[in-house]
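Box S2. Input/output pair 1.
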Amino acid sequence: MPQLLDFYFDFSSPYGYLASEKIDALAERHGRQVRWRPILLGVVFKQTGAAPLTLVPLKGEYSLHDFARSARFLDVPYAHPANFPLATQHAARACYWLHDQDGETARAFAHSVFRALYVEGRDVSDLDVVLDLAAGHGADRATLAKALAGPALKERLKAEVDSALAKGVFGSPYVVVDGEPFFGVDRLPQLERWLACGGF
């Protein structure tokens, strides 16, 4: 089985979206597989004292410009959402629920959530939107809705976020390969070189 690299992201992260469109192909070029691990930046920000980039004075205006420019540079479609920043716990919990059944389905669902938000302009904080997207990948809508309302998935996501924090994850996207962390979509070239050379 190919060695894994961990891809931590929040669906509300534009840079996480951009990385999501490139990370699997990058890993595959080097015989690796990606373990997709959604987290909640709101919880992370409480630990780091950070805030969504768009809400930070001066940085906010630049970040909006850079999201679009970075998307053009990476040749990834992008339209900034009208509802932003937004809550993503439903999508993150659904992703883990799907992953426990089939990893490839969870990956496809994650792509559909990102694209629904950053290409189609859909509000993925809406539970019905998340259920629709999951149903589009074969999930039973009623069963998933019940699971999302229960305590087990809430605890699962909390445990995943706590685990990420314990490993030093402080943002999105955050990739860990063989214990080496890389933060930000702009670190993908460094990540690729690391995989090619075994370190530098």
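Box S3. Input/output pair 2.
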Amino acid sequence: MSISNELILSLLKGNPNKKYDRNSILNELILNYPEAYQQKKDSHNNPKRTVDEQIKNQAYRFVLENESEYKELTINRNCKPIQFHWDSENTSILTLQDMNNELVNLAALSLKGCDEKRRERLRKADKKPRKLTVTVTVYDRNPDVVAEVLLRAEGVCECCDSNAPFLRKSNKSHYLEVHHITPLSECGEDSVENSEALCPNCHREKHFG
């Protein structure tokens, strides 16, 4: 497999409504098709242009040239840099969890990359990030469940058995976070039986470990 126009099209189709520009599509190609990227690097012989720049130009040119052919392909020229994406009405709304996972994946990719290139990107990067408006679904949780679980824990994490790391400024209570064992998004109950009081470290591990 090589980084071809078909592969670029497959990436866009596989991530409908996700917005790309030259840099982000390169990152996604490297992340999702590392063997194809390595093959491109091994065969690269253009002294005037790095392989990354060559791939970005290829993807960008392909999108611009095929805007009229694929009605699902949308290009927003009002954005700087120009953004493009594949439209789909069947795609679910991107969640904050999805965005956090993507950031973690891209950071891991950055760590694997060249230190010098990363620092060069940092020197050129805008230090004021773009603002995004995100629609979030939240659950109206029962405060009695939270209270009962915290009372049951008595200031001790119910995972690692460590004392709560600090006291809340507001009421001097032990700081523990109430976590649903089966997530509410997976039809878990908002009940004492389906909840546990965790220290911040254990809570993060439950979600990201």
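Caption for Box S3: Strands lie at 73-76, 83-86, 177-180, 195-198. DSSP finds eight helices and four strands in the chain.
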